[in-house]
Amino acid sequence: MTIRVALAAAGALLMAANHPAIAQNKYGPGVTDKEIKIGQTMPYSGPASAYGTQGRIEEAYYEMVNAKGGVNGRKIKLISLDDAYSPPKTVEQTRRLVEQDEVLAIIGTIGTPTNSAIQKYLNQKKVPQLFISTGAAKWDDPKNFPWTTQLYPPYQMEGMIFAKYLLKNRPNAKLGVFSQNDDAGKDYIKGLKDGLGDKAKTMIVKEVTYEVSDPTVDSQVVALKASGADTLFTMATPKFGAQAIRKVHELGWKPLNFVVSVSSSIKGVMEPAGSEASTGVLTALAFKGPTDPSWDNAPDMKEFKEFIAKWYPRDDIADGSNVTGYISAYMTVKIIEMCGNDLTRENLLKQATNLNKVVAPLLLPGISISTRPDRYAPYTQMQIARFDGKTWVPEGEVFNTDAVGQ
Questions:
Q1: Is 105 in contact with 130 (CB distance < 8 Å)?
Q2: 9-22 tens-digit pLDDT
Q3: 213: which strand partners?
Q4: Contact (Cβ atoms closer than 8 angstroms) between residue 122 and residue 98
């Protein structure tokens, strides 16, 4: 009898080895045969609430996936909590997600200061902090923070790309620099100055910053105009980006104004600033604009618009944050699919850090997502675009730089 049992056990092991599909499933926290629980915090209130739609569209995307049967038969449950863009609140809510809700991973949390507040905690706990919506250089640090990855174009790269644009099209510019006084702002400015090289000292005539607690940025814009700058680099979150664009217009000042991608939302920034004030503003993009008619017949854009109409009809399709959230949800589903039945935290991280030229929906032609265990930065390409009063119109070719994020 003992021999029979041993032979049966050996046969079962051999069968499992030859047929991985019937091998024992490996589950991390938050995973069952029917469900995968993930978490995030979002600024549904507070100074960056314009970004809140990103979390809502991710919820809608997972609802769509679940309605089709989920991923490998498992439904995705997203627990998305408000942190008001306040780091202490982010810490409180994230600890709840990890210790009480026991999520598999934290995915898609927005903001540099908010993610900074939880990075050490999550890495010590070995909880994946994946596809966070911030492009700060600090997220590409697999040696010290191996559990943290981003899914936003690196800020330094974007600053460098605008520098390349200036050197090519306006080499004698008198440049005013306006930025948020935090790590994100410093990354953008570092990329800008690195891109300008020795010319940074002569081209930049004024630098000013603002705090997220400031009621307005009117005084900073006035100071920049007084400097004699004819070109403006605006690094701001949506509320302050709209304020800056509007104040520039009110002053009758007509600089070439570049706003960074985090402040390029048509609904969140351009429309509040006003069509007349925002027309002519430049930005750098990695994604297709839903209101750009040149993409109307693109299959991925058609799918996106059908998704919005059915699953998220309560919001404006022109809001760029919806595109960011849509891509984040798509990539999350993709890495979960790649995990198969090995739904552990370790394997989820492995899949997220071994992406090879993934062409996610709504990426501009020539742009793809790649990560390696030694380089987490997902993008090396972006395109300059100009706002024509209604949508972003691409200008020239895609800029490519491999230096940023390495």
A1: yes
A2: 555 445 544 544 44
A3: none
A4: yes
Neighbours of 132 (CB within 10 A): 26
Q: Which single residue is written with the structure tokens 């004024």?
A: 206
Phi and psi, residue 154, nearest 5°: -55, 135
Only one residue has tokens 């090289």, namely 197
Nearest by Cα to 259 from 285, 290, 236: 236
Rounded (to 5) percent helix, strand, coil in the chain: 45, 20, 35
CB–CB of 80/59 below 8 Å? Answer: yes
Closest CA to 376 of 165, 123, 196: 123
**Beta-strand relationship, 204-210 and 231-235:** unpaired
DSSP string computed for 117-154: HHHHHHHHHT--EEEEB---GGG--TTT-TTEEE-S--
CA pair distance 117, 112, nearest whole angstrom: 9
Provide the CB-side half-sphere exposure for 38 (13 A, CA): 28
Per-residue pLDDT reduced to its tens digit, 337-395: 999 999 999 999 999 999 999 999 999 988 999 999 999 999 988 999 999 998 888 88
Q: Beta-strand (E) ranges in 92-230?
A: 106-107, 129-132, 148-150, 175-180, 204-210
φ/ψ bin of 54: left (φ > 0), alpha (ψ from -120 to 50), beta (otherwise): alpha
Return d(Cα 326, Cα 320) in angstroms, integer. Answer: 10
What is the chain's alpha carbon radius of gyration, rounded to the nearest angstrom? 23
Q: Phi-psi region for residue 325, left (φ > 0), alpha (ψ -120 to 50) or beta? A: alpha
Angle at 367 between CA 363 and CA 371, to 5 degrees: 105
- The SS3 call for residue 241 is helix
Q: Please report which helix (H) or strand (E) contains residue 381, including its range.
A: strand 381-387
Hey, what are 265's tokens? 């939302």
Buried b or exposed e, range 371-399, using 16+ CB within 10 angstroms = beeeebbbbbbbbbbbbeebbbebeeebb
* Whether the Cβ atoms of residue 236 and residue 217 lie closer than 8 Å to each other: yes
Q: List the beta bridge partners of residue 384.
A: 284
Q: Which residue has the tokens 């990426």?
A: 363
> 83-101: per-residue pLDDT in tens?
999 999 999 999 999 999 9
What the block records as the tokens of 277 is: 């004030």
